[in-house]
Amino acid sequence: MLRLIFTTTTIITTSTAIYLYTFHARLSKRITHISHHGPLTKAPVKPSIQSLPPQLSNNDSNDFITLYDRASKCIPLSTLPSPDIPHLFTNLVRRNMTAFSRFPQALLLAMASKTSEQKRSFKKEYLATSDFEVGDLVCGVYRVVSRSADRVEFEMAMEKMEFVQGRLGISYREEGGNVVFCSETVMWKRADEGRKMPLERGVVRWLHEIASWWLIDSGVRYLVDLEG
Fold first, then answer.
1. Which superkingdom, per the lineage (predicted)?
2. Which of 22, 112, 149, 205 is the most buried (most CB within 10 A)?
């Protein structure tokens, strides 16, 4: 019996790993991806997140170590069901944060929620109607710090990891006859901090890529499939 349990567990674990590896590879071909680890001033592309502290990009003294991850998807404007892109964009953020609220990492955050505000921030009815105004809390740890028609920026409030700071930015921009939807994550710590940020751990970073890439890819497909 123990041998059967061990064999079954091994098969399930291996199958899951193979599936996720294949899924990761397929997603990488459907989106544009950029990743950087080190001083933000040396990133191949400057983040579009506007709420980052100036010291991250205004000095080249290597005082901070950053992790920058960017996933974007470009589609023709003509494929969208409405010319009101700001409204569609809000629907995209609502849909993506609702989808994220069902991810394993979000479920863990929900179980650790203590305040009524934190618990409400995972509710489907709350996320499905939110306009993501400055100060709003989403999925327990994402606090809106900047909002405009073409972007939402969240500060990551990670308890028990005060040495890490972060931003999540979701935005769009028009390029000729196309629109580019983008999701960006930036985490940083002081260069003399020995502890690792979550995304400095290989498995965590790999799982983050799967989540981030899938959300932007499926979110854009969600918009295209909406009725006008």
1. Eukaryota
2. 205
Q: Which of 54, 55, 56, 33 shows the shortest CA–CA distance to 44?
A: 33
Place of tokens 């001083």: 39
Q: What is the CA radius of gyration of the chain?
A: 19
**CA gap 112, 142 in Å, rounded:** 14
Query: Which strand ranges, in their side-by-side order, compose the sheet holding 64-76?
Result: 32-38, 64-76, 178-190, 165-175, 151-156, 142-148, 137-138
> How far apart (Å, rounded) are the C-alpha atoms in residues 71 and 213?
6
Prediction pTM value: 0.88
Q: Give CA separation, 116 vs 49, 130, 137, 213, in Å.
A: 29, 17, 11, 30
Assess whether pLDDT exceeds 80 at residue 171. yes
Whole-number pLDDT of residue 221:
94
Q: Is 103 exposed, middle or buried (0-12, 13-18, 19+ CB in 10 A)?
A: middle
Write down the pLDDT at residue 138: 96
- 3-class DSSP state of 152: strand
